[in-house]
């Protein structure tokens, strides 16, 4: 939100008047992602497409510099065209070269279609409401780092044992380090591990049940326990 609100207007304001080199928007996007990465706001192996997607649909809601430049040039063009007939100066302006063709930005392709990274969102879209599922991104109060970690888990890029041989070529045993029963995938850690079942899953279940319980108390005017 800070980048969209404070940094992008600096780029937006002179766009369409000062010319960008074709590569500059892309380089600025890369520099921004590097900063986010350094501060834990973008997990290293996560795809970049999700970064520029609206939060309502599961993205991080960052505006791409490339997109900002394109939008701004387009809106100046539309504005100039709308009043050029009655304004001689603007009609000159309109006939001058206004837009340049930016090279297409491969970061903006949809990550839902990626076989591995997009699997979670494709599955959710089939069985539930994606908009409501993504509400934790618009209504939640998580820290940037926690948010990035959850996104990384959804995109299956956390360094589980199953992924380690593929990424680092260091380990051959793919089995879960706790139960040694099944390959250590994100899905296994979240809901398939017998060792975690005894403690962590019960605790998660109770926390969720607590939220539901308190919401029901609110709705029906019942007394709520003082402590969570
Ligand atoms: Zn396990």
Could you characterize the architecture of this molecule?
The protein has 228 residues and is mostly helical. It has a domain at 1-39 and 65-104. The protein is 52% helix and 0% strand. It has 11 helices and no strands. The protein has helices spanning 2-12, 24-38, 65-83, 88-95, 119-127, 130-133, 135-139, 144-154, 164-167, 186-191, 194-220. Helix 3 packs across helix 4. It is extended. The two termini are 31 Å apart. The model has no long low-confidence stretch (mean pLDDT 84). Bound molecules: zinc ion. The site of zinc ion (ZN) has 7 residues, from loops.
The best one-word shape is: extended
Percent helix among the residues? Answer: 40-55%
**Largest sheet entry:** none
E-strand count: 0
Elements, N to C (H/E): HHHHHHHHHHH
Which ions, cofactors or small ligands are bound in this entry?
zinc ion
Question: Overall pLDDT, averaged?
Answer: 84
Which range does the strand content fall in?
A: under 5%
Structural class: mainly alpha
**Cα gyration radius (Å):** 24 Å
Give the key terms.
228 residues, binds zinc ion
Quick synopsis:
The protein is mostly helical. The chain has helices at residues 2-12, 24-38, 65-83, 88-95, 119-127, 130-133, 135-139, 144-154, 164-167, 186-191, 194-220.
Task: Break the fold down into its secondary structure elements and pairings.
Blueprint: H1 2-12, H2 24-38, H3 65-83, H4 88-95, H5 119-127, H6 130-133, H7 135-139, H8 144-154, H9 164-167, H10 186-191, H11 194-220
Helix pairs in contact: 3-4
The protein binds zinc ion.
Residues 176, 178-179, 181, 188, 193, 195 line the site of zinc ion.
């Amino acid at each position: 939100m800070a980048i969209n609100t404070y940094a992008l207007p600096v780029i937006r304001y002179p766009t369409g008047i000062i010319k960008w080199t074709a590569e500059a928007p892309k380089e600025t996007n890369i520099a921004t992602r590097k900063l986010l990465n350094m501060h834990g706001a973008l997990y290293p192996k996560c795809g970049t497409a999700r970064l520029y997607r609206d939060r309502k649909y599961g993205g991080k809601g960052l505006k791409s510099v490339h997109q900002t430049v394109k939008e701004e040039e387009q809106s100046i063009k539309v504005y100039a065209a709308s009043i050029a007939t009655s304004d001689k100066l603007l009609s000159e302006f309109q006939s001058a070269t206004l837009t340049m063709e930016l090279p297409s930005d491969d970061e903006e392709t949809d990550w839902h279609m990626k076989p591995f990274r997009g699997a979670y969102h494709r599955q959710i879209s089939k069985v539930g409401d994606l908009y409501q599922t993504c509400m934790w991104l618009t209504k939640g109060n998580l820290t940037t780092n926690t948010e990035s970690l959850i996104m990384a888990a959804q995109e299956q890029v956390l360094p589980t044992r199953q992924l380690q041989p593929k990424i680092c070529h260091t380990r051959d045993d793919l089995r879960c380090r706790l139960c040694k029963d099944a390959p250590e995938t994100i899905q296994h850690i979240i809901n398939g591990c017998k060792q975690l079942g005894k403690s962590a899953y019960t605790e998660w279940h109770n926390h969720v049940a607590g939220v539901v319980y308190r919401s029901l108390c609110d709705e029906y005017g019942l007394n709520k326990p003082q402590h969570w």
